[in-house]
């Protein structure tokens, strides 16, 4: 595989006006993504989900996105019109949201929604149903024809998440952004969803951005890990080198992980230090 990154984000900042001044939700973030599994870890409000939305230019006014560039295979997304971005979303970059119950239309069957997604990206009506069945089978859903006739409230959370993944993969995108895709699932279903994403990344040569607050999960699943705190990437590490962490926030996260041999430490709140700078990027591993 080529070593050139699929995605190159440089100096990304997301701001919102408030009564007391400008709030920076994301502050000067830079990273690259290759054909790999890249984890972004941070507490609620750290800016990790906002980063994913900003890449797809889903931040609406009065929010503002500024960056040196957001390069997708050599094309700067910042220079594209909204019409052009609608084709990028889904066809080249897909995003799976946290709770499928809020992403699926409750008054449409699963089959109608998958068929609609397929036709929106240029597929023919005659091929749509077979494509829908094939995509459900690709995410390990048994009896796909029965599931196609079901409504979202008739499927479990784990199956709903797999349906969302199937819909997002219909146009065979280069990149999948998964925002807390397993947080509402039990351990066994979580393992199934992770296994499916792992297989799809390997088989299709995709890039995956896996957003989570669970450091243990990301470390066991991803190739590289970015640690976000207060809107900034404070450390970038290979997942198998977490013990090399040098930033106090990363060390605090590691120390607060539950362990059998010793009680977990309480995660301390760190003051925002203007001297903090973005950690140097770890090269994307293809």
Description:
The chain has 286 residues and is of the alpha/beta class. It has a domain at 93-170. It has ten helices and eleven strands. It has helices at 48-55, 82-91, 100-103, 110-120, 125-138, 144-148, 157-169, 187-204, 215-221, 248-255; strands spanning 7-18, 21-33, 37-41, 64-66, 69-72, 75-76, 93-96, 175-179, 207-212, 224-229, 232-238. The protein has a six-stranded mixed beta sheet, sandwiched between helices. Strands 1, 2, 4, 5 and 6 form a five-stranded antiparallel beta sheet that branches. The radius of gyration is 19 Å and the shape is globular. The protein starts with 6 loop residues before the first strand and ends in a 31-residue tail after the last helix. The relative contact order is 0.17.
């Amino acid at each position: 595989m080529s070593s050139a990154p699929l995605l190159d984000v440089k100096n990304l900042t997301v701001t919102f006006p408030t009564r007391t001044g400008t709030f920076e939700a994301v502050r000067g973030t830079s990273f690259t993504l290759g054909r790999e599994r890249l984890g972004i870890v941070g507490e609620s409000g750290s800016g990790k989900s906002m980063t994913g939305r900003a890449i797809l230019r889903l931040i609406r006014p009065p929010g503002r996105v500024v960056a040196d560039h957001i390069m997708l295979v050599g094309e700067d997304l910042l220079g594209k019109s909204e019409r052009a971005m609608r084709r990028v979303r889904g066809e080249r970059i897909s995003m799976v949201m946290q709770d499928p119950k809020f992403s699926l239309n409750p008054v449409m069957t699963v089959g109608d929604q998958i068929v609609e997604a397929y036709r929106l990206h240029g597929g023919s009506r005659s091929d749509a149903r077979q494509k829908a069945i094939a995509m459900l089978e690709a995410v390990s859903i048994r009896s796909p024809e029965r599931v196609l006739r079901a409504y979202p409230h008739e499927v479990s959370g784990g199956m709903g998440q797999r349906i969302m993944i199937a819909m997002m993969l219909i146009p065979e995108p280069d990149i999948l952004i998964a925002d807390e895709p397993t947080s509402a699932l039990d351990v066994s279903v979580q393992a199934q969803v992770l296994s499916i994403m792992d297989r799809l990344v390997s088989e299709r040569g995709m890039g995956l951005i896996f957003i989570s607050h669970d450091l243990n999960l990301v470390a066991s699943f991803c190739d590289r890990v970015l640690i976000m705190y207060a809107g900034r990437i404070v450390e970038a590490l290979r997942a198998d080198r977490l013990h090399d962490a040098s930033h106090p926030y990363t060390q605090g996260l590691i120390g607060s992980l539950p362990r059998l041999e010793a009680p977990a430490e309480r995660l301390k709140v760190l003051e925002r230090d203007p001297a903090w700078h973005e950690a140097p990027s770890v090269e994307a591993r293809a």
